[in-house]
Amino acid sequence: xxxxxxxxxxxxxxxxxxxxxxxxxxxxxxxxxxxxxxxxxxxxxxxxxxxxxxxxxxxxxxxxxxxxxxxxxxxxxxxxxxxxxxxxxxxxxxxxxxxxxxxxxxxxxxxxxxxxxxxxxxxxxxxxxxxxxxxxxxxxxxxxxxxxxxxxxxxxxxxxxxxxxxxxxxxxxxxxxxxxxxxxxxxxxxxxxxxxxxxxxxxxxxxxxxxxxxxxxxxxxxxxxxxxxxxxxxxxxxxxxxxxxxxxxxxxxxxxxxxxxxxxxxxxxxxxxxxxxxxxxxxxxxxxxxxxxxxxxxxxxxxxxxxxxxxxxxxxxxxxxxxxxxxxxxxxxxxxxxxxxxxxxxxxxxxxxxxxxxxxxxxxxxxxxxxxxxxxxxxxxxxxxxxxxxxxxxxxxxxxxxxxxxxxxxxxxxxxxxxxxxxxxxxxxxxxxxxxxxxxxxxxxxxxxxxxxx
Length: 454
Prior knowledge:
Blueprint: H1 4-19, H2 39-56, H3 67-80, H4 84-96, E1 104-106, H5 108-111, H6 116-120, E2 127-129, E3 132-137, E4 140-146, H7 151-154, E5 162-166, E6 169-170, H8 171-179, H9 186-201, E7 203-204, E8 208-214, E9 220-226, E10 228-229, E11 233-235, E12 243-245, E13 247-253, E14 259-265, H10 273-283, E15 288-292, H11 303-308, E16 316-322, E17 327-332, E18 351-355, H12 362-372, E19 377-380, E20 390-394, E21 400-404, E22 407-409, E23 425-426, H13 431-435, H14 440-451
Parallel strand pairs: 14-15, 15-18, 18-19, 19-23
Antiparallel strand pairs: 1-21, 2-7, 2-10, 3-4, 5-6, 5-8, 8-9, 11-12, 13-14, 16-17, 16-22, 20-21
């Protein structure tokens, strides 16, 4: 699986932006929804999408969906569509009948914003942000982390603050807009809301954005933030926008003695491999290790095999990917050498994985696989179950169809799609904990390691 959920994350955020009024989508072109469309173009576009899905879906029986009946029901509506927006609604209804993630129609005005060629036109325009991490708690967009020395940190923004608006993005209005969509699953909507807000904090480094927050005392704070270059290593992969991948590690002392290593990975991309290997070596002496995958949208699925081998003493299958004609097992082999080539044993101490509602795709595969083979204990929130490998197709209208071509199951044959990785120790994210400076999921994982024998 190659970065399907990364594509999904970018696509969902930009699709929200394209649907919002005003200039909420700083990178997207004006909406084409009201643009007239001919009967011929509407039909050829609908038929292109219907045929491609039918020909490439991993299950020839379409998981019980009568695909011919779907065409017969919706094709007349496509034929009657007089605007591009009406056609998009019809194709979205077709995708909804499948009931799975990674079936998304991305408007051209949003798709062009993630087209690699578009960003190459202005290589001097470095992307930036304000250093804020956002999540949805209940029905509210909340700051869950502030990067040290970032624009947000210097402005005094703190975890637990509510994002009321940013740029011309209003959180309440965005939620209503998303809730009315007929072409997106609930899991996609949950991911979209904070990502749509986060997209407004992003922009060209050096540019500014106005944001309104509710602080810890309930006061309204209007702040202008000047974006700074994104942290991490820039990575471009296929149709994805440039991503900035970070690998970080720290050693945390345990109250019972010894230490726990904490490794954080922002995305499963190949340039992160060496840094991940070095991070494991740096915490190998600790009693236990925590892998923090919160907010990690996925990436290159095959990386779970190499990384998993650091924690497995025998050959283990972490799951299986199934296409219409083939099956691929994700087999992890023990890693018995460090980055310097010295012989080591795979790490055998307690292993915890922390996840949340934005730990997607490859992150879900790794977490569910390591849990299923009994090697790791999961803490935090249920992952969203957005785990299907997908590819992109440019349609005659210029819109882009994201469609699934494979399924994935864990080592026990359980589908991850729609279910996700279920934590052994559920630890919900709460604003109260954030305002007190408590990272409850991580603290629970560290407490488990401290209390483990050995």
